[in-house]
């Protein structure tokens, strides 16, 4: 969800972010998502119908796609939690280096502004396709509207031309942009998902960050006694509460429970002990009245701002939260990230976190300036542009060792770095949200009903399984699989 982005977490969220990171931190403190699919997409080139529509310039070591100097690039950026100042900085650098000017659009209305353009065969050249109004990547792919990014990923890296671009990317982070074995979206931002709390509030109340679900519930109950909500969530965007539910399922049942959902298993939900335990744990918060009052009816920013006002102990989100809430967060709030606490007999350790890439960037197959778009994306994966992003959006990118060491961290971001280091290889990432948007929407709808107490956990499981079973009937689903 953007994602990354505020409304799109895994969302893309999702999906909106932070002061960032030391070169050594990006190397040593970032965990590697498990089960990489890179081998599945190492071969292949661009789509046959994606020949460059622009007048190409001369190719060179510094300009391998022949982006025409003096040309123009049509750039559309989701203006969510990360803002769009980072893209303006990129565009300025692009103009300085290649003389290519940009038409810049920053918006949250991605579908409203771009669907007519895609339909008319006149799309932008490069798009940050994120947010609540994202045009779903799987839909664009099925309609043949996306460029296969293999040519960009196999091009010489800006910082080390002896290596391919893909060689300098954190392993596993390309997986989220895959459709049927092809990388068609570049999920650019390295994101972690989980719970968040105020270090100041916890210190004042004498609370310690919980590692077990029982301890989490105990803090929520103590908060309620003191007139504070236990858990806040962004009710109008149920993607966020699914961060908690799906994390609990993965940590309780292990990677097999997660893969069962992505692989459309007939027992992904109904018949899964982990799914049952996860949803019942979240419903316990609802049933005991431990939600922040009114949270079910709030947008992401409304709920998050109330949390910033100490009206709730915890909130669910991805690591764009700190940057998104800069204007609303008190200076001494001391924002902290927390891995999802454990249910009894969990297969993954407390330190395990959902981590991976968010904020999908796409190049439309019918872009007018394909050479310019490819070169722009190649430079996104340079240390210079990765650092520009860090300075403007306060977050990590998928580029290994990608941020200048002089960039200083905010408290929330620093806590995500520490959490990533503690997690090590104990990371996980669902892919059904990218592969099967209709199924993802159905699961979110069920969660919305659950949080409003209109359905019980057993009904939630049935509805989620029905969404899985429906998706499994689509023959195209057989082309996506996690081993």
Annotate the secondary structure layout:
Elements: H1 23-28, E1 72-78, H2 85-98, E2 101-107, H3 110-119, E3 126-128, H4 137-142, H5 150-153, E4 178-179, E5 182-183, E6 186-198, H6 199-205, H7 213-225, E7 229-232, H8 239-253, H9 255-262, H10 273-287, H11 300-308, E8 312-318, H12 321-324, E9 335-338, E10 353-362, H13 370-380, H14 383-393, H15 411-423, E11 427-428, H16 432-435, H17 437-451, H18 457-472
Parallel strand pairs: 1-2, 1-3, 7-8, 10-11
Antiparallel strand pairs: 3-10, 4-5, 6-8, 6-9, 6-10
Helix pairs in contact: 2-14, 8-9, 8-10, 10-18, 17-18
Polypeptide structure, described:
This protein is of the alpha/beta class. 37% of the residues lie in helices and 13% in strands. It is built from 18 helices and 11 strands. Strands 1, 2, 3, 6, 7, 8, 9, 10 and 11 form a 9-stranded mixed beta sheet that branches. A hairpin with a 2-residue loop joins strand 4 and strand 5. Helix 17 packs antiparallel against helix 18. The longest helix is centred in the C-terminal third of the chain and has 16 residues, at 457-472. The protein is globular, with a radius of gyration of 21 Å. The model is unreliable at 1-54 (pLDDT under 50).
Task: Kindly summarize this structure in a few lines.
This protein is of the alpha/beta class and 483 residues long. The chain has 18 helices and eleven strands.
Feature tags:
11 strands; 483 residues; alpha/beta; nine-stranded mixed sheet; globular
Order of helices and strands: HEHEHEHHEEEHHEHHHHEHEEHHHEHHH
Largest sheet: 9 strands, mixed
Overall morphology: globular
> Rounded to an integer, what's the Rg over CA atoms?
21 Å
Secondary structure: number of strands: 11
Residue share in helix: 25-40%
- The total of helices stands at 18
Work out the strand percent. 5-15%
- N-to-C span: 24 Å
Q: Regions with pLDDT < 50 over 5+ consecutive residues?
A: 1-54
In terms of structural class, how would the helical and strand content be classed? alpha/beta
- Arithmetic mean of pLDDT: 88
């Amino acid at each position: 969800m953007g994602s990354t982005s505020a409304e799109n977490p895994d969302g893309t969220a999702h999906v909106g972010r932070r002061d960032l990171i030391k070169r050594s931190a990006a190397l040593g403190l970032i965990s590697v998502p498990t089960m990489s699919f890179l081998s599945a997409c190492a071969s292949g080139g661009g789509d046959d119908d994606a020949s460059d529509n622009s007048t190409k310039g001369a190719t060179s070591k510094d300009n391998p796609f022949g982006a025409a100097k003096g040309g123009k690039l049509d750039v559309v950026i989701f203006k969510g939690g990360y803002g769009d100042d980072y893209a303006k900085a990129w565009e300025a650098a692009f103009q300085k280096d290649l003389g290519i000017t940009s038409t810049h659009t920053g918006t949250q209305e991605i579908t409203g502004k771009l669907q007519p353009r895609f339909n008319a065969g006149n799309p932008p050249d490069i798009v940050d396709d994120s947010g609540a109004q994202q045009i779903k990547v799987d839909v664009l792919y099925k309609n043949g509207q996306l460029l296969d990014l293999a040519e960009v990923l196999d091009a010489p890296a800006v910082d080390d031309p002896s290596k391919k671009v893909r060689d300098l990317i954190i392993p596993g982070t390309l997986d989220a942009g895959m459709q049927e074995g092809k990388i068609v979206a570049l999920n650019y931002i390295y994101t972690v998902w989980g719970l968040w709390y105020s270090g100041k509030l916890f210190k004042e109340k004498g609370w310690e960050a919980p590692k077990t679900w029982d301890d989490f519930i105990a803090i929520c109950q103590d908060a309620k006694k003191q007139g504070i909500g236990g858990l806040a969530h962004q009710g109008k965007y149920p993607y966020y509460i699914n961060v908690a539910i799906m994390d609990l399922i993965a940590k309780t049942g292990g990677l097999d429970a997660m893969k069962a959902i992505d692989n459309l298993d007939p027992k992904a939900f109904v018949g899964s002990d982990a799914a049952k335990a996860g949803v019942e744990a979240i419903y316990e918060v609802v049933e005991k009245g431990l939600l922040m009052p009114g949270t079910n009816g709030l947008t992401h920013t409304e709920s998050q701002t109330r949390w910033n006002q100490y009206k709730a102990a915890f909130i669910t989100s991805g690591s764009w939260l700190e940057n998104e809430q800069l204007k609303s967060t008190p200076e001494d709030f001391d924002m902290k990230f927390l891995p999802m606490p454990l249910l009894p007999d969990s297969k993954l350790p407390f330190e395990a976190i959902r981590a991976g890439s968010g904020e999908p960037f796409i190049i439309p197959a019918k872009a007018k300036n394909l050479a310019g778009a490819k070169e722009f994306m190649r430079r996104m994966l340079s240390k210079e542009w990765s650092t520009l992003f860090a300075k403007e959006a306060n977050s990590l990118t998928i580029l290994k060792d990608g941020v200048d060491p002089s960039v200083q961290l905010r408290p929330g971001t620093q806590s995500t770095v520490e959490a990533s280091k503690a997690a090590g290889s104990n990371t996980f990432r669902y892919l059904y949200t990218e592969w099967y948007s209709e199924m993802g929407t159905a699961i979110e709808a069920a969660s919305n009903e659950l949080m409003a107490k209109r359905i019980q956990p057993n009904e939630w499981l049935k509805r989620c399984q029905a969404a899985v079973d429906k998706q499994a009937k689509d023959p195209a689903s057989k082309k996506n699989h996690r081993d």
